[in-house]
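note to self: dont lose this again. the chain is below, predicted strucutre after it. 334 aa total, dont forget to put it in the shared folder this time
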Amino acid sequence: MTSKKKTKVFVTRRLPDQVETRMCELFEAQLNIEDTPRTQPELVAAMREFDVIVPTVTDRINAALIEQAGPQLKLIANFGNGVDNIDIEAAQKKGITVTNTPNVLSEDTADMTMALILSVPRRLAEGAAVLAEDATAWKGWSPTWMLGHRLGGKRLGIVGMGRIGTAVARRAKAFGLSIHYHNRRKVDPATENELEATYWESLDQMLARVDIVSVHCPSTPGTFHLLSARRLALMKPGAYIVNTARGGIIDEDALIQALQDGKLSGAGLDVFEHEPAVDKRLRKLAEHHRVVLLPHMGSATVEGRIDMGDKVIINIRTFFDGHRPPDRVIPGRL
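---
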């Protein structure tokens, strides 16, 4: 009796040890121990040899790359919820199924979003820097030093009221923020009542009325520069903006200009339009404590990464057992 041939899996980045161990037990897995981003020639070679590619947000699986895939490649099992790094339609035309890892990062990302919502108006990073850079600069408590702004009673405008946006809204409501949101459609009445949320069909109208904007919509061609120079100009001069979604949803040049001109009070950014490159003007603004910058760590928890890996494994096993994987991505339904 011959044993079943193991599925050949190519993993583009290093994953948590227990995820990689399980992959090696179940599949013929090629890992990336050095955790260096794969080059295009490496990805082309892998797509001609392996049955499954496991990419991450740092890998651009575009139409030109997919066109070079061999007939054995049947599945792209993305390690991540967002699939803007993959040309889904090109994969479908090539007969390649794409899966992702939804529903495991919402709470982690919402936690980090709330941290940024707190850190910018309350000047947390600026205060921490005083002690880290020069402890002698602090002369003791003063009633007028390092004053920020209260969160309670302010209006939070959420752009994209999906799982993460809703999780952020629940946290923000507990801090006394008034919840406003713009979405393609209204959330269900029970959720809206629970959050006492106000729905705005017009994004423009919402932006003009809120004190803090938090971005949570998916990255698609339709949301690229959704927050354009025109829309940023609609916001209050004292408003703040927080982005833990994707950098390209905000026109970064326009955001920098608005911050430099004092037309916005500040920003908390976990993602950037051209990452891993971070615009030197943003870094300068961070030095002057106008923005808080984080290196795309919104979902970076041990638990979250392991849950993502488990989903990737389940999708691969289900697919090669002849069933529809639970997290299949359908073009047009993102």
